[in-house]
Amino acid sequence: MDRLAPRPLHEPHPSRLPLDHPRHDEIIAAHDAALAADEAGYLDPDTGLFVLTASFHAKRGTCCGRGCRHCPYVDSP
């Protein structure tokens, strides 16, 4: 089992979702709503693709290495 990064699950690593992303707040709101509903993911407001939540990844227990936006295991840039 991989070790989770020392940050809240609702907060993606800045290398995966920069603070200056033009739709950052919308993406975070969609992710937070999915977390609150205990859903596996949400439709990305930017691309329309299904994006897995940090909670989904954490429950899986390991990083898949695919560069997921909400990977809870990423700790360094």
Task: Write a short abstract of this structure.
The protein has 77 residues and is an alpha+beta fold. The protein has 2 helices and 2 strands, in the order H-E-E-H.
Structure description:
By secondary structure, the chain is an alpha+beta fold. The protein is built from 2 helices and 2 strands. The chain has a two-stranded antiparallel sheet with strand order 1-2. The longest helix is centred in the middle third of the chain and has 13 residues, at 24-36. The two termini are 21 Å apart.
Terminal CA distance reads 21 Å
- State the assembly state of the protein chains: single chain
Mean pLDDT: 94
Q: Over the alpha carbons, how many angstroms does the gyration radius reach?
A: 12 Å
Sequence stretches where pLDDT stays below 50 over 5 or more residues: none
Content-based structural category: alpha+beta
Layout of secondary structure:
Blueprint: H1 24-36, E1 41-43, E2 50-52, H2 54-60
Antiparallel strand pairs: 1-2
Q: Keyphrases for this structure?
A:
2 helices, 77 residues, alpha+beta, 2 strands, single chain, two-stranded antiparallel sheet
